[in-house]
Amino acid sequence: MPVAGDTMTASAECIGAEDSISDAVRKLTELGVGALPICGTDDKLKGVLTDRDIIVKVLGKGRDPQQAKAGELAPGEAVTIGADDDADEIFATMARHKVQRLPVIDGHRLVAMVALADVARALPAPQVGDLLEALSTD
Question: Which of 25, 137, 21, 8 is nearest to 81 (CA)?
Answer without folding.
Answer: 8
